[in-house]
Design brief:
Strand order of the largest sheet: 4-3-5-6-7-13
Number of strands: 15
CATH superfamily of the largest domain: Response regulator
Number of domains: 3
Distance between the termini: 49 Å
Shape: elongated
Structural class: alpha/beta
Oligomer: single chain
CATH class of the largest domain: Alpha Beta
């Protein structure tokens, strides 16, 4: 950015001069249709007078790219590297980048108290040509701020609250319903528990809704229960401990991921509750854990690496000005193993 009186001119400086928000300045400079023509003229005039040059405009003036994209995960590094989901995402992103000789910058948060750190490095640093974002919360308004700031963004997941996002994802609601129906229809389970992930994320919310759809359609919703945990093995075990004697009222559990399912199976076994004889269990993701434990965990297989590759390839197209899709949905499979009562040789059911 240009400088005046010894400091850089910011979006906030322009906004204060015109009497609007920084977001409105960003949208006006990007010719967003939500800003009136009259307001755009005033904002652009103020930007010129102050000597403001946006990061994307400055890059265009230099006629060069950074040949770097960011993978933004607005969570702590401890959380990121403690979950296999992010390993698969990183693998898919780096594979696509390597094909184009593009570098990958991983942006996470320093700690739970600094929720914007992952974004701020990208917004302030002018270090990347674009960003792939995953695991953003429903309440995370910074995703929209990022794209309004001139940074091309592709999102992994479902973000129905954003205007025209470019996204890759699966139908989490339908997939969760598929897994739940398997317990209801194949194994005749009638009293089910869903252990959801955090429902301030669209994935956690949609998987809960899918479970609710299935038990309602089967007419067993009054005997079902939804609880929430933190997507870790310990989270699954803690749910079992907290339910205690109430577990006797249920015969099946649907988990929002395999880590929780594994933790729960361990805790159920410790309590002498047989899996699947007394309690059928299904998970979600199939990132590896479900295949190597005993009993093998029946689960929904999600093609995360493929999703991350496609997200990155689409981002690089956007950076190059190539038109293309704005939404890509991936199929999932229900993989039946021993934890629900099936054999390990069952044929996968596709959604």
């Amino acid at each position: 950015m240009a400088s005046t009186n010894g400091r850089r001119v910011t979006l906030k400086d322009v906004a204060e001069k015109v009497g609007v928000t920084p977001a409105a300045v960003s949208m006006a400079l990007l010719d967003n249709g939500r800003i009136s023509a009259e307001k755009k003229i005033a904002i652009r005039q103020a930007a010129t007078e102050l000597g403001y040059v946006g990061s994307s405009a400055a890059r265009a003036l230099r006629n060069q790219k950074t040949n770097t994209i960011a993978l933004i995960v607005p969570l702590t590094a401890t959380h990121v590297f403690g979950h296999s989901y992010f390993t698969h995402v990183l693998q898919g992103v780096t594979e696509a980048c390597n094909r184009r000789d593009v570098q990958t910058l991983l942006a996470t948060n320093a700690d739970e108290a600094h929720g914007l750190a992952a974004y701020e490095r990208v917004l302030r640093g002018n270090m990347v040509d674009g960003a792939v974002v995953t695991s953003a919360a429903i309440t995370d308004s910074t995703v929209q701020r990022l794209s309004q700031g001139g940074v091309p963004v592709v999102l992994i997941g479902n973000f129905p609250y954003l205007d025209e996002p470019v996204t890759v994802g699966i139908d989490d609601r339908a997939a969760s319903a598929l897994a739940t129906r398997h317990l209801l229809e194949v194994h005749g389970r009638k009293r089910l528990i869903h252990v959801a992930g955090p429902r301030d994320h669209q994935t956690g919310l949609d998987r809960s809704l899918g479970f609710a759809d299935a038990v309602r359609e089967a007419g067993v919703d009054e005997g079902s229960l939804i609880v929430e945990s933190d997507l870790t093995e310990q989270g699954g075990a803690t749910v079992i401990d907290e339910l205690g004697s109430r577990l006797a009222d249920y015969d099946g559990m649907v988990f929002a991921n395999d880590d929780m399912a594994f933790g729960a199976i361990t805790a159920l076994t410790r309590l002498g509750i047989g899996v699947p004889t007394e309690m059928s269990v299904v998970g979600f993701d199939d990132f590896g854990l479900a295949r190597v434990v005993s009993p093998g965990i029946s689960t929904v297989r999600v093609p995360v690496e493929e999703m991350a590759r496609d997200a990155t390839e689409r981002l690089l197209q956007i950076v190059d000005g190539v038109p293309g899709w704005t939404r890509r949905d991936f199929d999932v499979q229900f993989i039946a193993r021993e934890s629900c009562g099936c054999s390990a040789t069952e044929t996968p059911r596709e959604l």
